[in-house]
Amino acid sequence: MSQSFNMRDLLPAKAVAASLEAASKKDVLLQISEAAAKNIGADAQAVFDVLWERERLGTTGVGQGIAIPHGRVAGLDKVSGFFARLAQPVGFDAIDDKPVDLVFLLLAPESAGADHLHALATVSRLLRDAKLCEQIRRAKDAGAIYRLLTETAAVQAA
Question: Which of 10, 69, 70, 105 is flagged as catalytic?
Fold first, then answer.
């Protein structure tokens, strides 16, 4: 893979949570680590450790209620994502100090090189769309969120 990522390749349909109950940033990361690990066949604790270590370097809360936690995990064969809309916004030490309610997790193989950065750029571009984020916040279920994410990405890429 190179410059651009197909959102359907990055985000399997089963990798969307429409109403994740979490009490804190750490709780969000624990829960998405478990859910993502199940989808990709990785160790949940290893995923969490990578994410927590990355957060210690600096927040992945990018502002406007959005966080994009990410990291490289041993044993993965491709960049993979997991999306969660939180039932209630939580403090995430975001750069704008606003709580987060939309979380897009990205996990990459240790050898991903630039693919990891290209995937981050793709997700970041997508979630900069304020109208899309409002539609995601109002979507009735995980299927609707998945369609919004994948169809909007396809239109943006065209």
Answer: 70
